[in-house]
Every structure is written in C-alpha cells, then in structure tokens.
Design a protein that fits this description.
Length: 259
C-alpha cells in the first residue's frame, strides 16, 4: 500500500491533474443567467412580501374599528358630505340649506331657527341695478320689507325650477310686507332676458347684473342659483347656495315676517 510520501503516487496525481481540461458543457452561461434573473424579478415585481400584507391587513382592521366607533355620531348629526353638496348646489333634494356665512350652524334636532341670529346679521350691500321697466332697483326700495333676492340666469336649470315657487311667495306674502327681486347675470343682458321672460312671465321684479361692476356689491358668485333673505332692517338673514329647499325657505320667510 502506498504511503502519502510514495513518489509513484505523486507522479500519478501530477499526471492526472495535467490531463484535466475545462469541459465546455460545464461552463456557466452568463447571458442566460442574467435573462433568467430578469424574468424572475419581472414575475415577482408586483408581489408584496408577506410582511407587507400583514401590515396592510392590520391597518384595514384598525380603520374598520374607527368607522364602527364613529357610526353613532353620524346617525345624530348632519352628514358633512351632505352639507358640502348642498352648499355647492349639487343636491336638489336636500332638506335644509346652510345658513349665511359667519353664522353658527343651527342644531336641527333642537328645532332652532335656520336664520342667522339677529345680533349677528351683517348689513346687506347697497345696490343699484337697472330693472325691466327702465328704472333702477335699489336696496333702499325695500326698507321695512322682507326681501328675497335671487341671482339667476336663463341658462340655469335649477333657477327655472325655483321661479314658480317665488311667484307663489310673491302672491301669498306681498301684502304682509314681502317682495322678490330676481337679479339676472345673463350676458348680453336684456337681449336674452326679455325674450325669456316673454315665454315665462314672472310676477316679481327683475333686475340686471350683467357686468362685473354691477355684480361686485354681492361678492363672489360662482354657483347659481344663489338666494339671499334680507330682513326688514336691511340685514342679511340667510343665504342659500344652489337650488333652495322649498319647505326650509318658506319657513324662513314666515319667521322673518313675524319678527
């Protein structure tokens, strides 16, 4: 038996090692390996690690618990999304409208008035606008009366919906010290408004605010219709943005007439 120091064994090992050559079939194919790696990454790119899924699940459970906790509040208080939609004129079926800017939102559960408190009502802006009869409509014309001031346009669908309601208010409440004035924002003014009123006659006064100068006293008007209720002392008592709620505005008119 040969030992570790056997010269014959060492020569045999050297001969065998010298005879070894690289096997082409066993060499790594770098291009193929890169291609496989890219394919693997592309296949798994959209997958989240299981840890990420566990975190997402925990967040979902927490959010669900919060929604359940807040549910009793939404059953008693007005839905903020509904209030936002009403203020933007996007909910014709809304049952109440937002009060004038700067006033506290009344608690609908207590039956409190939707009008701005008397001591918090701002003075309505003074205005002078040309009317259908060739005269000028002014705020001073309505001192001592409750005034419904409605901003509208012939192209505004919700504005046309409101017109019969305002006609009815004028008929029923004018003897009690109430008046309606419709302020058209149409351009180019009477050339459009007169033909419209010939097709749809109204029993209340129509004035024109067809220029930025004429509209300026009333502030920014981005949504039509817009309706103001002004009390007997010329103070802004309520503002409705978008289609008014018929029952709410009639209640406000009656309340103002009784003040």
């Amino acid at each position: 038996m040969a030992t570790q120091d056997d010269p014959e064994l060492e020569r045999w090992v050297d001969d065998r090692m010298a005879a070894l050559e690289p096997d082409p079939e066993k060499q790594p194919d770098v291009d193929d390996g890169l291609a496989q790696l890219k394919a693997h990454r592309a296949q798994h790119r959209g997958r989240k690690p299981i840890g990420a899924w566990l975190v997402s699940g925990a967040v979902a459970v927490w959010v669900g618990a919060m929604v359940f906790t807040l549910a009793p509040w939404s059953a008693d208080e007005p839905d903020p999304a509904d209030l936002t939609a009403r203020e933007a004129g996007a909910s014709p079926s809304a049952s109440a409208d937002a009060p004038a800017a700067g006033s506290a939102l009344p608690d609908r559960r207590s039956g409190e008035s939707l009008l701005t408190r008397i001591d918090e009502r701002p003075d309505a802006p003074h205005f002078t606008l040309p009317d259908m009869d060739g005269g000028n409509a002014m705020l001073a014309d309505y001192t001592g009366r409750v005034l419904l001031l409605n901003f509208w346009a012939t192209w505004c669908g919700p504005c046309r919906v409101e017109m019969p309601w305002f006609v009815d208010f004028e008929e029923r409440f004018s003897d009690d010290g109430f008046a309606v004035v419709g302020v058209s924002l149409d351009e180019p003014g009477w050339d459009i408004v007169r033909p419209f009123l010939e097709r749809q006659p109204l029993n209340y006064r129509i004035a024109l605010a067809d220029t930025p100068e004429r509209l300026a006293p009333f502030g920014e008007t981005y949504v039509l219709p817009k309706t103001w209720l002004i009390d007997r002392k010329g103070r802004l008592a309520a503002e409705h943005i978008g289609l008014v709620d018929l029952d709410s505005i009639e209640s406000q008119i009656l309340e103002l007439l009784s003040e």
